[in-house]
Amino acid sequence: MRKEVVLVTGASGEMGQALIQRLSASGVRNILALDVRPLPDEIRKHCPYSITGDLLDDKLMDRLVSEFSIPRIFHLAALLSTRAEFTPEAAHRVNVDGTLGLLKLAVDQAMWLGQPVKFIFPSSIAVYGLPDLATKARAGAVREHEWNIPTTMYGCNKLYAEHLGRYYAHHYRQLAAERPQHTVDFRAIRFPGLISAFTVPSGGTSDYGPEMLHAAARGEPYACFVREDTTMPFMAMPDAIKALLMLEAAPQERLTTHAYNVTSFSLSAGDFRGEVLRAFPGAEITFVPDRRRQGIVDSWPVNQDDSRARQDWGWAPDYDLRRAFDEYLVPNIRERYTMPGA
Ligand code: AKB
Q1: Domain extents for the chain?
Q2: Which of 85, 271, 289, 314 is the least crowded, having the fewest Cβ atoms under 10 Å away?
Q3: CA of 206 to the centre of ligand 1 (A)
Q4: Which residues line ligand 1 (CB under 6 A)?
Q5: Rg of the Cα atoms in the chain
């Protein structure tokens, strides 16, 4: 008998950890966690099944197929935008080939199950590419179909993976004599920069926000790698998890696109510093822009228009800027770094 599981890839990452905790809190007891890095102990206890391994390993994929029945997949594993620029081909392998392999696995699973497999995919603001600051200012909050010309490997990978998902959902093997009756129910969300109170991101370009905050809480100086006026949207991690689960639960007939923007607040790096100083008045935060990482954030929009998600599946964030800092980030971060051994 194959064991029925909810598969979470990228389980040891920031979003993976937060999602697993939320799923477990809502009573999901059959999580299969997959990551190249071992799971932190406090996450492992929520997962009856966990595998440390690489999505690109064919033997591992065969094992997943033979041991598990997988009607739901949260495919979170990815190499983020800064890291991907140092190893673009490796990023392509993880972000594109890894996704392709998992889509194929989902199609095989759908055949066994006799129903489409839910495939939830976090995409990113990085799928957008604005050519210069004047255009960025003029564009304002971008809609899903606008400015889909990313400048990063990660952005290209995410945009293409969205299209692969759309293809597997609607056009897979369209000329085959016997097309599979069921494939994947693919749903993607384009996230802004995410901020967690419990984990610090690594390898991304929106990392300056959370890095600034966590450094201040640890009493360490921080040199921000973008200019003070740099503006992009951010979201508190609980809202990101809420968005994934809301989109997953939305009735298929309500959905009008395969990839949705979500957002909650947009602010400049200077304003971010102001928020951090309100909570940690002694924080030492300077601006030492890195020209190349700056270029990446400059190519991302100042905000994302999420009216489609609001209309189709009732999206609304719980945390605006004020609540995010006052009720989620600052209290939890304070506690985290005052705990013994933190
Ligand atoms: C990154 O900075 O690469 C990610 C993202 C915006 O998707 N946080």
Answers
A1: 78-338
A2: 314
A3: 5
A4: 80-81, 124-126, 154, 193, 204-206
A5: 20
